[in-house]
C-alpha cells in the first residue's frame, strides 16, 4: 500500500508530478487555450464582481491560501484577505453579499474551517470550497467548489494536498483574471504553457533526494531552524518550517526574509541553520542581501536557488538547485526540497513521520 516506499509521506511527496497533473486535468489545455472549472462557471459573475475574497483555512491549507493571496491580487486584482479559520469565526468579521469566502481544506472535516463557513453563510457571503476529500462536510457546506485531485493523503504531514491546492488556486486566479480583463491573453497563455511544464519540473526537483539526504545528515541534531522567503516564497518558508516542526520536533520558524532584521536576526549564530528560498524572481536581489546579513552573523545557509545561479552559491553553505519557472508558479517547485529535507531529518531522528506525536490527520474538534 505504500508502493515500495518506507512511509506514506515519502510516497505522497513522490506522487506530486501526478497529483498536480490530476488537479489540472480537464481544466486546462494550453495548446487550445482551454481554461475552465465547472464550479467557477456557475458563480462567474459573482467572482468577477466580488468586492473582496476572504480565504479561511488552517495549517498547511492556510499556507496555500497565502500563496493564493499573491496570485489573485496580482492576476485578478481583487483584494484578498487570508484568515486563520479559528480566529475569523470568533472575531465578528465584517462580511456581506459581495464578498466571496474561499475555504481550503484537505480533509474537508476541520472543525474551525467548517464553523467559519457557517458564520460567513449567515452573513450572506458566497462560499467556495477547495477540498480533497469528496463528499466531506466542508464540500457539502459550500455553495460551489473545486476538488483537488491529490488522491488520498495518509501521512499526517500534508504534502501533495498542498501542491494540489496551489494548482487549483492558480487556475482560479487565472480564470478570474482573464474574465476581469486584468490578465492579458498573451500573459495568460504563457502561464498556461508554463503550468503544463510543472509536473516534469517537480519530477526534476525530486531527483535532488540524494543530495538532500546528505544535507539532512549534517543538520539532523540541531535544536532550531529558521526559514526565510519573500513574495511567493514567503508562504513556502512558513510551510517548510511547519513541516520540520511537526514531524521532526525541531523548533523551526518561517519569516518573510526582510522581517528577520526586526527581531529574529538576534537568534543567528554559527549554530543556526537558515533555509533561504532564493530563486530568481522579482525579490531575488533583496534576498541576496538577506543572505549576506545571515552570513555576516555566521549562520549556516541552506539555499534553494534557480538552476545556474552563481551569486547565492558563492555565499551559501549548501545549495539546492531547482528548475526555473515563473514566480507565480515557484511555490510548486520550491516546496519540494523542503518537504524532502523535513522527511529525511525526521527519519534520521527516529520519529514516526506518518503519525507524529500529538497530531491527528484532521482536527475535528476546536
Ligand atoms: O484537512 P485540512 O486541510 O483542513 O487540515 C488543516 C490542518 O490541520 C493541516 O494542514 C495540518 O496543519 C497538517 N498537519 C500540516 O501538515
Written account of the structure:
This protein is of the alpha/beta class. 45% of the residues lie in helices and 17% in strands. The protein is built from 14 helices and 12 strands. The chain has helices at 8-14, 16-24, 38-42, 44-48, 59-76, 85-88, 111-122, 137-141, 160-180, 185-206, 209-219, 234-248, 284-296, 330-348, and strands at residues 28-29, 34-35, 52-57, 80-84, 99-105, 126-131, 144-147, 224-229, 251-256, 273-277, 300-306, 318-322. It has a 5-stranded parallel sheet with strand order 4-3-5-6-7, sandwiched between helices. A 5-stranded parallel sheet has the order 9-8-10-11-12, with helices on both faces. Helix 5 runs antiparallel to helix 12. The longest helix has 22 residues, at 185-206. It is globular. The two termini are 32 Å apart. The mean pLDDT is 97. Bound molecules: 5-amino-5-deoxy-1-O-phosphono-D-mannitol. 5-amino-5-deoxy-1-O-phosphono-D-mannitol is lined by residues 58-61, 105-107, 110, 113, 156-158, 242, 246, 362-363. It comes from Pontibacter korlensis. The active site is at residue 361. This is Glutamine--fructose-6-phosphate aminotransferase [isomerizing].
